Amino acid sequence: MAKVVRDPVQISAQIEKYLARMPPETRRDVQTIRAAIRAAAPRATEVFSYGIPGFRFDDRPLVWYAGWKEHTSLYPLTAGMRRAHADELARYEQSKGTVRFPRTAKLPTALVKRLVKARIAEIRAEPAKSSS
Questions:
Q1: Residue pLDDT, tens place only, 59-100
Q2: By CB neighbour count within 10 A (0-12 exposed, 13-18 middle, 19+ buried), where does 10 fall?
């Protein structure tokens, strides 16, 4: 299992290193999706796991995001999120658990915010895991 970094200073350093390795246009899109997630979930805390940045909400995984040569990705794309936003998501490439926003188009920040809010609603609806 991948180690989850939780120390805010280490997380910030990991994210900065992650961003620094990217070409400027990829970095711009990753910073844009990061800002959209923060705007939709201001109480969420940043994490760095699986080699990419993400957020937790109420100490539960919220979303991860990543920048690639041809696209920016958002994870997870749950079945509920996919159903609720099917019309808007139809124009984007998807795979199990992922939506890919192509570099050739403006990043749909309003859609990203709606997806994040839908994920928060799912988290709130899930029973909390007991520690026993």
A1: 999 999 999 999 999 999 999 999 999 999 999 999 989 999
A2: exposed
Select from 66, 27, 65, 29 the least CA-distant residue to 44. Answer: 65
Beta bridge partners of 49: 52
The owner of tokens 């050739």 is 104
Left, alpha or beta for 50 (phi > 0: left; psi -120 to 50: alpha)? left
**Alpha helical stretches, state H, 1-132:** 8-20, 24-40, 79-84, 86-89, 109-125
pTM over the 0.70 mark: yes
DSSP letter (8 states) at residue 46? E
